[in-house]
């Protein structure tokens, strides 16, 4: 069963030390709003892949492609601002360490800035992700293990203040992808216990901070 270090929003100083190697995981999964240097450190110290989606405080990573080992944007080589070696799953479906992960980053739009979307914009992005899933499912028959988001679904672990409202479209995405887990950040517990939510067969978990999770196939 693959084991992951799952992180979001709050860097833990205990993980900045070499002691992080004792966690013995197969990958790092990051749900946004963490320094990219932190993700590089975790992946490097653990010597494992890092899959992430951007949060609303992260730089704009849209429009970058890889060609012949080079990072490209608008047809020209350029430095990728994301974490070195990191796998950006935003709007994509990726297979890493025996897990199939679908990603949808960003938060509700509450001011100008990257990785913020209106409900309608995120719904369009979610529909594209769902189409990619159907094609992949038709091709190889495999389902989604993790739906990795920055924001939670509306009314399933979000808040009522405008910056922390979740996305309504994620309810449909959960029904379509039927992942085992939806992992999200963005909502800071501030020391309060945060129970998992359930939608159909999908368990929804707020992963702000860090935890080690084991995933069955």
Describe the 3D structure.
The chain is an alpha/beta fold. 19% of the residues lie in helices and 28% in strands. The chain contains 3 helices and 16 strands. The strands form 4 sheets. It has a 6-stranded mixed β-sheet, covered by helices on one side. Strand 12, helix 3 (169-177) and strand 13 form a beta-alpha-beta unit. Helix 2 packs parallel to helix 3 (169-177). The radius of gyration is 16 Å and the shape is globular. It comes from Amycolatopsis albidoflavus.
Secondary structure tally: strands = 16
Outline: globular
Number of helices: 3
**Largest sheet features:** 6 strands, mixed
What is the terminal separation in angstroms? 7 Å
Give the helices and strands as they follow along the chain: EEHEEEEEEEEEHEHEEEE
Taken as a percent bin, the fraction of beta residues is 25-35%
Structural class: alpha/beta
- The average pLDDT is 95
- Main-sheet strand order equals 8-9-12-13-15-14
| Spans where pLDDT lies below 50 across 5 or more residues | none
| Relative helix content | 10-25%
The gyration radius over C-alpha positions equals 16 Å
Organism: Amycolatopsis albidoflavus
Pfam family, one: Metallophos
Protein name: Metallophosphoesterase
Domain Calcineurin-like phosphoesterase: 20-189
């Amino acid at each position: 069963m693959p084991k992951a270090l799952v992180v979001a929003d709050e860097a833990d100083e205990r993980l900045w030390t070499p002691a992080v190697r004792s966690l013995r995981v197969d990958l790092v999964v990051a749900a946004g709003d963490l320094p990219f240097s932190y993700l590089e450190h975790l992946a490097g110290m653990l010597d494992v892949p890092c899959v992430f989606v951007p949060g609303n405080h992260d730089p704009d990573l849209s429009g970058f492609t890889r060609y012949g080992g080079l990072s490209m944007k608008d047809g020209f080589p350029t430095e990728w601002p994301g974490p070195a070696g990191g796998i950006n799953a935003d709007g994509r479906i990726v297979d890493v360490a025996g897990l199939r992960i679908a990603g949808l980053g960003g938060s509700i739009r509450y001011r100008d800035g990257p990785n913020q979307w209106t409900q309608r914009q995120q719904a369009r992005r979610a529909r594209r992700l769902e189409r990619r899933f159907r094609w992949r499912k038709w091709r190889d028959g495999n389902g989604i293990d993790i739906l990795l988001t920055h924001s939670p679904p509306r009314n399933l672990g979000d808040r009522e203040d405008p910056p922390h409202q979740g996305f309504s479209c994620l309810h449909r995405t959960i029904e379509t992808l039927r992942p085992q887990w939806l992992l999200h950040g963005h909502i800071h517990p501030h020391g309060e216990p945060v129970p998992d939510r359930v939608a159909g067969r999908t368990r929804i978990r707020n992963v702000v901070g860090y935890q080690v999770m084991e995933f069955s196939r």
